[in-house]
């Protein structure tokens, strides 16, 4: 059975409320057949024999994806009243806007009295002038979307009978609130800058306190309260809300007491990554 899993995978991806293929517009059997033709040997992989990763394994994948991601799309909303003097059109009042921002998984290098213990709260370099942070300053809620779609060429085809497909690759959205970090100095500032600049060498020109920076910036962190995960097509990956205790409890190596099975995010790989040396 090659075709049914693909169809149910799409169903799961689109919405759990759909109950039949007739609910999907434009799902063309011929397209599905063509996908199968493109597979080198469609009989060698059969989605019926696949099992989804457990939710805990999916959480490890999500924490790994956060750790490897230099940016994500932050969604905020414009204030409900935009002053006449603003250059922002009055028509966008209350509308959502998604903008890509620099992030890094640097909580673990913050000083002990400030760190949340490397719990998956991303560190964000915020520019005061940027729309995202102006909206948050005006009271907007926010979320942050992170995905593995830039890795399609390494990942290749991951779903039986389907050519390389971004929709088959993981992504998630973090909900929470922005916590402005206090001004750091000396060794604390240096450790955070070193961690952040590993993935953003260009950002050294607008770090907080950088001399002659074109725009004032500050350090902030997204304190995560909910995580929505789409691992890929729903018949071979999990889709849904993560257990936030597990999200926060995972570490690079292992996890905190009471969470997980001894593995950390270093023990999983995302589609297309080479397997760990000495891994299973
Ligand atoms: C932000 O979300 C909270 C619920 O988490 C809601 O009560 C509040 O009204 C929202 N704020 C805005 C500005 O939409
Ligand atoms: C979330 O995970 C923790 C740790 O594994 C567990 O104790 C708790 O029961 C889980 N919560 C839910 C709602 O499943």
UniProtKB/TrEMBL annotation:
Keywords: Signal. Gene3D superfamilies: Electron Transport, Fmn-binding Protein, Chain A (2.30.110.10). InterPro entries: CREG_beta-barrel (IPR055343), Split_barrel_FMN-bd (IPR012349). Residues 1-23 form the signal peptide. Residues 61-246 form the CREG-like beta-barrel domain. Pfam families: CREG_beta-barrel. PANTHER family: ADL397C-AP (PTHR37273:SF1), CHROMOSOME 8, WHOLE GENOME SHOTGUN SEQUENCE (PTHR37273). This is CREG-like beta-barrel domain-containing protein. It comes from Penicillium daleae.
């Amino acid at each position: 059975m090659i075709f049914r899993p693909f169809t149910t995978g799409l169903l799961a991806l689109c919405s759990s409320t759909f109950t039949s293929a007739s609910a999907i517009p434009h799902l063309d059997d011929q397209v599905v057949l063509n996908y199968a033709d493109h597979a080198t040997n469609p009989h060698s992989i059969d989605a019926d024999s696949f099992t989804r990763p457990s939710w805990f394994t999916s959480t490890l994948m999500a924490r790994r994806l956060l750790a490897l991601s230099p940016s994500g799309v932050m969604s905020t909303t414009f204030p409900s009243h935009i002053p006449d003097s603003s250059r922002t059109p009055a028509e966008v009042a209350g509308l959502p806007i998604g903008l890509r921002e620099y992030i890094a998984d640097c909580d673990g290098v913050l000083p002990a009295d400030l760190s949340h213990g490397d719990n998956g709260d991303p560190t964000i370099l915020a520019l005061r002038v940027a729309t995202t942070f102006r909206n948050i300053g005006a009271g907007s809620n926010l979320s942050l979307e992170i995905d593995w779609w830039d890795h399609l060429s390494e990942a290749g085809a991951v779903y039986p009978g389907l050519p390389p497909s971004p929709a088959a690759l993981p992504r998630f959205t973090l909900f929470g609130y922005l916590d402005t970090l206090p001004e750091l100095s000396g060794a604390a500032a240096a450790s955070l800058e070193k961690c952040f600049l590993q993935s953003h060498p260009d950002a050294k020109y607008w770090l907080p306190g950088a001399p002659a920076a074109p725009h004032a910036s500050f350090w902030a962190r997204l304190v995560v309260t909910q995580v929505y995960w789409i691992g890929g097509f729903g018949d071979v990956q999990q889709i849904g809300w993560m257990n936030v205790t597990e999200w926060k409890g995972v570490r690079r190596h292992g996890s905190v007491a009471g969470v997980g099975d001894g593995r950390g995010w270093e023990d999983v790989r995302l589609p297309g990554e080479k397997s760990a040396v000495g891994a299973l």
